[in-house]
Each structure stands twice: as structure tokens, then as C-alpha cells.
């Protein structure tokens, strides 16, 4: 089970919104109090601009906090009100500990998902495939047996990632094919491990995995 949040810990937030630009913004807020069903946080600050973020009751949030060992603990929440305790505080719903996704840098979560990925390598013609699973450390995709990709090949890819709020991200990464698994159908599964991906893009992919896992748990 994930390590629980503590007073004075930093909470990293993104607002779940249909506004594509706003959905990309990252905020941080210090935890002021942890109660039975509520977490009180200071007004969030934009990590890039330093500006304070005005939240509204009902705003949906994707959040994570970092516990011992650099483990990131992801959860979803929503704004349920505001409090005055010398300074203005934002009250958000406290997540069920069982719903918190714990992700260690060396053991990224893998989630079953069919996403469109464009694959280019060496002098071969780029092709489009569908992923079988995705995660913060790599992806696997299924392609036709005629594609000449082999283990140890290095590829350049673009992955189309849709979020629940309707926004779509195009994530670029470079990866190494670490395993090829032939299928009875004549197709094959190619398992990729990221060799180069921007940390911001990795976080976007982890956010997608978190949303997907949350939906899988509900079902």
C-alpha cells in the first residue's frame, strides 16, 4: 500500500479540463492538514511561472506526491471547498489508499492499451501499429510479420495518447527493441524499452496509465 500523505509535503497537481493548454499546466501546493475525508492544501502555484492557480469547487485533479525513496504516488481527487486558517486553503477529497498508484522509477506500471504508434527505423519505410501495452519505461506493439524490425534495433516513434478529458497528446520517443515475440497469426509483438524520452512526456504517459488503471479498477 502507498505511503500516506503528510502535513508539509508537496502535492503536484494538474487540472483535468477540456482546455488543452490548461491541462498541460503543472502546479504544486503544500499540504496544510490531512483529515479523515479531506486534505487541506495551500493555493497551488504554477511550477513554471510561479503564479497562483485559482481553483473552483468541483474541479477534478490528477495529483501525485513523492514518498521515501523517490516513489511517486498518483491519485485523482476533486475540489470540495475552501477554508480560512489565517491563509486561504483549498479542501480536496482524500483518496482511498487502495486507489493510490505507487510508481517506482525502475518498475514502471504497464497497462493494456491499444494506442496508435508510428514507428521509423534505419532505412525502412515508417509504419503504423497498435500498442498492446504502454508504461513509463516502454511500450509493446503488434505489427505484421513482414516488418523487418529485429531485437536490438533502435526506433524513433510517435505515440498518440488520448486522455479522459478529450485532449490528445503526441509523444515522441526513441527506443530499443528488446524482444520480438512471433504470434500464431503470423504477426508479431515488438517490446520496446525507452532509450530517450523527455521527462515531461514520460509523465504524460504515466498520467495516461494512471487514468486507464483507475478505469480498469472501476470495471
UniProtKB/TrEMBL annotation:
List, for all copies, the residue spans of the domain called Type III secretion system flagellar brake protein YcgR PilZN: 6-95
A GO molecular function assigned to this protein is:
cyclic-di-GMP binding
Q: Which InterPro entries match?
A: PilZ_domain, T3SS_YcgR_PilZN
Q: Give a yes or no for keyword Protein transport in this entry.
A: no
Ranges for domain PilZ come to 104-211
Give the keywords, sorted. Transferase
Which Pfam families does the UniProt entry name for this protein?
PilZ, PilZNR
Q: Does the keyword rRNA-binding apply?
A: no
The protein, known as: Glycosyl transferase
Amino acid at each position: 500500500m502507498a505511503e500516506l500523505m503528510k502535513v508539509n509535503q508537496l502535492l503536484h497537481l494538474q487540472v483535468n479540463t477540456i482546455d488543452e493548454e490548461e491541462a498541460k499546466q503543472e502546479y504544486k501546493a503544500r499540504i496544510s492538514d490531512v483529515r479523515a475525508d479531506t486534505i487541506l492544501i495551500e493555493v497551488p502555484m504554477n511550477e513554471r511561472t510561479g503564479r497562483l492557480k485559482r481553483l473552483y469547487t468541483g474541479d477534478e485533479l490528477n495529483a501525485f506526491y513523492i514518498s521515501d525513496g523517490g516513489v511517486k504516488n498518483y491519485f485523482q481527487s476533486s475540489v470540495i471547498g475552501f477554508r480560512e486558517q489565517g491563509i486561504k486553503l483549498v479542501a480536496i477529497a482524500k483518496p482511498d489508499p487502495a486507489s493510490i498508484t505507487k510508481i517506482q522509477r525502475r518498475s514502471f506500471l504497464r497497462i493494456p492499451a491499444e494506442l496508435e504508434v508510428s514507428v521509423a527505423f534505419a532505412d525502412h519505410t515508417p509504419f503504423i501499429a497498435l500498442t498492446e501495452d504502454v508504461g513509463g519505461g516502454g511500450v509493446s506493439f503488434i505489427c505484421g510479420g513482414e516488418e523487418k524490425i529485429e531485437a536490438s534495433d533502435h526506433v524513433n516513434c510517435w505515440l498518440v495518447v488520448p486522455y479522459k478529458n478529450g485532449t490528445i497528446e503526441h509523444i515522441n520517443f526513441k527506443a530499443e527493441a528488446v524482444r520480438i515475440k512471433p504470434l500464431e497469426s503470423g504477426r508479431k509483438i515488438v517490446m520496446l524499452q525507452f532509450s530517450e524520452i523527455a521527462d515531461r512526456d514520460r509523465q504524460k504517459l504515466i498520467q495516461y496509465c494512471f487514468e486507464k488503471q483507475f478505469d480498469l479498477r472501476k470495471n
